[in-house]
Amino acid sequence: MYCGNLRIGFFREISYNAIMQEKSEQIVLGIDPGTRITGFGVVFLTRQKIEVIDYGCIRLPTKERLSYRYFLLFNAFQKLIAKHQPNEVAVEAQYLDRNFATTAKLSGVKAALGIATETAGIALHEYSATKAKKAVTGSGLASKLQVQRTLQTLLQLKELPQPEDASDALSLAYCHANALLFQARCMNI
């Protein structure tokens, strides 16, 4: 089976074999972008397992102007990166919404994340919500509750990951961690 090199992030090519051989342990930060609430999830992976380090939400003051919220998010992303030192970051890919204003606002959030990751020299990866759900539950059509329950089981959490924004971010981190593990295993066959 050939897994090869994948195009990821901002058009960088990277060998997953090099990642997992060079560093047998990885930290992945998942981000569920939003202009009011942005979820984050941090997982630690080795060749054998994926464990949760941290998860939660960044709640933004909705009465503030949008540009200031982007600034706050940029600072929050920088703090998360400094605190957890992730090797990789996964973010939910945008879908084209009929409401252009919503799509444009989310683009600003992703731009703030992109600048924070590039400043830190970290690759940024995008996954659709469907792909993240499928990586966690086996179905891209799973409900948010199914995703939360499955994450609770897979990651051996005492309670459901809450709120939904945080569990969505954890599912993105888990999805990318699984992709790294799969690619490392393929390269070792």
How far do the termini sit from each other?
8 Å
Helix content: 40-55%
**Quaternary structure annotation:** single chain
Task: From the alpha carbons, calculate the radius of gyration and give it in angstroms.
Answer: 16 Å
Regions with pLDDT < 50 over 5+ consecutive residues?
Answer: 1-21
Based on Cα principal axes, name the global outline: globular
Q: Which class of secondary structure composition applies to the elements?
A: alpha/beta
What is this structure, in a nutshell?
With 189 residues, the chain is an alpha/beta fold.
What does this structure look like?
Helices cover 48% and strands 22% of the residues. It has 6 helices and 7 strands; from the N terminus they run E-E-H-E-E-E-H-E-H-E-H-H-H. The strands form 2 sheets. A 5-stranded mixed β-sheet has the order 5-4-3-6-7, with helices on both faces. It has a two-stranded antiparallel ribbon with strand order 1-2. It is globular.
What is the strand and helix layout of this fold?
Blueprint lengths: L5 E3 L3 E3 L1 H7 L3 E7 L4 E9 L4 E10 L6 H19 L3 E5 L7 H21 L2 E5 L1 H9 L6 H11 L9 H24 L2
Parallel strand pairs: 3-6, 6-7
Antiparallel strand pairs: 1-2, 3-4, 4-5
Jot down its keywords:
189 residues; 6 helices; disordered N terminus; single chain; two-stranded antiparallel ribbon; globular; 5-stranded mixed β-sheet; 48% helix; alpha/beta
